[in-house]
Write a structure and sequence with these properties.
Elements lengths: L1 H15 L1 H8 L2 E3 L2 E2 L9 H4 L5 E6 L5 H14 L6 E6 L2 H17 L2 H4 L2 E4 L3 E4 L2 E7 L3 E2 L6 E2 L8 E7 L6 H8 L9 E6 L8 H7 L3 E6 L5 E3 L8 E3 L14 E3 L13 E5 L7 E5 L9 H10 L2 H12 L8 E2 L2 H5 L15 E7 L3 E10 L2 E10 L2 H10 L2 E7 L7 H7 L3 E8 L7 E3 L4 E5 H13 L3 E2 L5 H10 L2 E7 L6 E7 L4 H13 L25
Length: 542
């Protein structure tokens, strides 16, 4: 009886899980290659996510296209949708190649599935009375005007639209494809692509979504994300402190805290912003059990410039282009003085807080017209810790990342005894920051104030505490925001823009600190008030 119940339950699960279904059916991807999912557990939540719109930025060879194929076939097989599925690629030539190389073999080597297929062309697959339409996203000018349209995207009613390599598609056609869902009760959208420009396409869609990453918990209790913690999440066995692991080769995935080898298969998806309406995930080649870590890391250590950018895009899944300008570690370290981090201060200070995966805090004051001293920096877990540190450091003015308010920033702002503004970035506005004291907000030109952060460091107009583990972390993050000339893929117009090439939260916390410092009068360094008591602030470092 137990075996019968297990079999019944397994069959029921297969009806809702495409990957389990493909595995149970022994589905062949091509001649002699059965589908196997045991080494890619990160794919399960990606194939049937809980949110209506889902965007995935990815490296190459992460099996994502295969899972989207299987989900589309499974949807037709069990008639999960009442209408069609549209599978989009940038061009029709890519559609033809994709169906020929990857989709057609699934039917050719699975006769049981082929029997249910009434239409099997390069553009349409009809399975059990439901169809998958393959379309290219090329646009056509209408009547010689600037209006763009496409007959391929006009006539197909859909319940689901899949956009493969969305970064290479005409944005007007992306918008047009969504109109195919107007009469759908499902309105499912899947976007995935290797990233190109920072802040464009899949990179922007990921930032706008709930920002889920695959996190692996070490025995020491630390969670590591291979993508956000790269390159510190991959270490050389010959030089590192990790023990020999379960794969051959010198390079292994390691805990960023203790250095012990971790198994990327033993992770879970965690959203930075779970309350956001749209889902987004980040999948790199580092998650693949077949990832050639030795080759990748040898290449990573050698390449520079454009080749490094391509590595970051294709392997790590980071939007990256060759930068023109950015801080170096040497430039930031040159600002370090002889004083240690402060945990207490009598004189008035100002604070900048960046709200991301954690809360990066920078506290100090202005000591001359355009000269600043930073007393402490911290990586905190919650706003209670920010409150406690601000109280000890006698903060009077604060600028905090407006963010998605997932840490309760607005409530925090209302309760704090010092003046606090929420910062909003703008790419268009020019000139001085626009302060709204009634609302408690400040709006600034993002590029101009990133320039400001860069210039005060290069010109040594900031005095930092002496080196320590948290200062080293601060220094690293200050180098991950760089300036590049970006061409808008739609307009062709190039503009300089500061872009992210790694975790850069302290860079933005420093920007907010500089903004807060403009609200206070300078106090010369010689006139500062000596602290009555010293507290170690390193205890706040996660």
């Amino acid at each position: 009886m137990t075996e019968e119940l297990d079999l019944t339950l397994s069959k029921q699960l297969a009806q809702v899980d495409p990957l389990l279904w493909a595995y149970q059916k022994g589905l062949m991807l091509t001649d002699g290659v059965p589908f196997d999912i045991k080494d890619s557990p990160y794919l399960f939540d990606l194939v049937r996510p809980k949110k209506r719109v889902n965007s995935i930025k990815k490296g190459t060879q992460v099996r994502l296209t295969t899972t989207r194929f299987l989900d589309a076939i499974h949807s037709c097989y069990y008639r999960r949708y009442s209408k069609n599925i549209m599978y989009m690629m940038p061009t029709f030539k890519q559609v033809e190649m994709l169906t020929k190389m990857s989709f057609n073999p699934i039917f050719a080597f699975n006769p049981w599935l082929d029997k249910l297929t009434s239409v099997n062309s390069s553009q349409v697959k009809t399975i059990n009375g439901r169809s998958i339409y393959f379309v290219g996203a090329q646009s056509e000018a209408v009547g010689g005007s600037q209006t763009k349209d496409s007959a391929n995207l006009r006539s197909v009613p859909c319940d689901c639209v899949i956009r493969d390599e969305i970064d290479l598609m005409d944005s007007a056609m992306v918008d047009l494809s969504e109109q195919r869902l107007n009469d759908s009760k499902f309105r499912h959208i899947f976007n995935f692509s290797s990233p190109t420009y920072p802040g464009y396409g899949i990179d922007q869609l990921y930032e706008d979504g709930d920002q889920s990453t695959w996190r692996i918990k070490c025995d020491c209790g630390t969670w590591t994300c291979l993508e956000t913690d790269f390159p510190h999440s991959v270490e050389d066995l010959k030089r590192g402190k990790c023990s020999v692991g379960f794969i051959d080769g010198h390079w292994v995935r390691t805990c960023v805290s203790c250095g012990k080898q971790i198994d990327q298969r033993k992770g879970e998806w965690v959203a930075n912003y779970p309350s956001r309406e749209d889902g987004s995930n980040w999948v790199s080649n580092l998650l693949s059990v077949n990832s050639a870590l030795d080759d990748h890391m040898t290449r990573f250590q050698k390449v520079t410039g454009g080749a490094l950018c391509e590595f970051m895009r294709s392997i790590v899944g980071v939007a990256s282009i060759e930068a023109e300008d950015g801080l170096t570690e040497q430039e930031v370290l040159a600002c370090c003085g002889n004083d240690s981090l402060r945990g207490y201060w009598d004189g008035e200070t100002c604070m900048g807080v960046d709200d991301n995966k954690g809360l990066r805090v920078v506290i100090g004051r202005r000591i001359d017209k355009d000269v600043y001293e930073i007393y402490t920096v911290a990586n905190l877990e919650n706003l209670n810790q920010v409150h406690d540190l601000a109280e000890k450091m006698n903060v009077k003015y604060s600028v905090i990342d407006s963010g998605p308010f997932d840490h309760g920033i607005r409530e925090f702002q209302k309760k704090e005894p010092y003046k606090t503004w929420l910062c909003y970035y703008s790419e268009q506005m020019q000139g001085e920051p626009k302060w709204d004291n009634e609302v408690g907000s400040v709006k600034v030109n993002r590029n101009e104030w990133c320039d400001k952060v860069h210039s005060v460091i290069v010109d040594k107009k900031v005095i930092l505490p002496r080196r320590s583990p948290i200062i080293n972390e601060f220094v690293s993050e200050m180098t991950h925001t760089v300036k590049a000339l970006l061409k808008n893929p739609d307009t062709g117009i190039s503009k300089p823009r500061w872009i992210k090439r790694g975790r850069d939260d302290f860079f933005h916390a420093s920007l907010y600190f500089l903004l807060a410092a403009t609200r206070m009068s300078p106090v010369p360094r010689s006139g500062r008030v000596a602290p009555k008591q010293k507290f170690a602030v390193n205890k706040y470092h996660l």
